[in-house]
Structures are given as structure tokens and as C-alpha cells.
Design a protein that fits this description.
Strand content: 35-45%
CATH class: Alpha Beta
Structural class: alpha+beta
Largest sheet: 9 strands, mixed
Order of helices and strands: EEEEHEEEEHHHE
Helix content: 10-25%
Radius of gyration: 14 Å
Length: 146
């Protein structure tokens, strides 16, 4: 397998969340092949901060708009392109869920409880970050939507 440029392996993501009837929920999306549940993530765009890039992925991959944390809550790693990608994870407090979005034809999405979401994702480190979401979800470190 051909190795990608090093910057491909530095990625950012968001954990989209909202409170519904005082319950904390997480939005998961499917991978492009719809075989796994993941969070919106991607290569950090060169003209964006990691937080901005994660916020953009939430719009493109899940049709979500909202406020993103300025600082990551952690990182996780996964294998892709014959190497290991390291993903900085930010929070996204969802303010708008669009009916149509750029990748709606290749992805599904679903709201899940924190525990359900943590159990549905494959990466153990990501599951831990999701389980710890109640500790972070009240942060005031959220910037307005783009």
C-alpha cells in the first residue's frame, strides 16, 4: 500500500452532542462503506485550525452545525493507509441538524446515548473519550458556528 504524505496522518474530529429532555446524546455517522460507526473526522485542512477543520467535517459528513471547543479533549489513534493516524478530538455542541448535506448519499447518522455511542465505535480510545463526555459537555470553551 502506498504511503501518504505525513500530514495525512494528523487529523481532527468532533464529538457532536446535544441535550434532549436533559439527556446527553451523541451523533455517530457511518464510515463511507457504512460498515462502522464513527465520529466526523478528517485530515486537517492546511488553511484551518484543527478545531475549524473538525467543525467543517461535521457539516460535510453529518450535516451538523454548532459550536466547537477551542481545545481538544483528547486524541485517539487508528490504522489507515498502512500506518497510524492520530486524531485530535474536539466537542461540537450541535445547534442545527440539516436534512441534506454534502455526504448524505454515502453516510448514515444516528443519535445515541453516551454509553451506546461508546460501545458502537471500534476504537477503544475513542470509546473512552465518548464515555468521558459528561465531564466535558458543560465547558464554556465553545466558539460560535462557522
Amino acid at each position: 500500500m502506498q504511503r501518504r504524505p505525513p500530514w495525512f496522518y494528523k487529523q481532527s474530529a468532533v464529538i457532536p452532542f446535544r441535550f434532549e429532555q436533559d439527556k446527553l446524546n451523541v451523533m455517530l455517522i457511518t464510515s463511507r462503506n457504512r460498515k462502522r460507526w464513527i465520529i466526523p473526522k478528517g485530515i486537517i485542512e492546511r488553511d484551518m485550525t484543527p478545531a475549524e477543520s473538525g467543525q467543517r467535517e461535521a457539516f460535510e459528513e453529518a450535516g451538523l452545525r454548532g459550536r466547537v471547543s477551542r481545545k481538544p479533549i483528547g486524541t485517539y489513534r487508528y490504522r489507515k493507509w498502512g500506518d497510524t493516524c492520530e486524531v485530535q478530538v474536539f466537542l461540537l455542541k450541535v445547534e442545527q441538524v440539516l436534512d441534506e448535506w454534502p455526504e448524505s448519499s454515502v453516510r448514515q447518522r444516528r443519535w445515541a446515548t453516551v454509553e451506546e455511542a461508546a460501545n458502537l465505535v471500534k476504537e477503544e480510545e475513542l470509546g473512552t473519550l465518548i464515555r468521558n463526555l459528561p465531564l466535558y459537555s458543560q465547558v464554556d470553551d465553545l466558539s460560535s458556528q462557522s
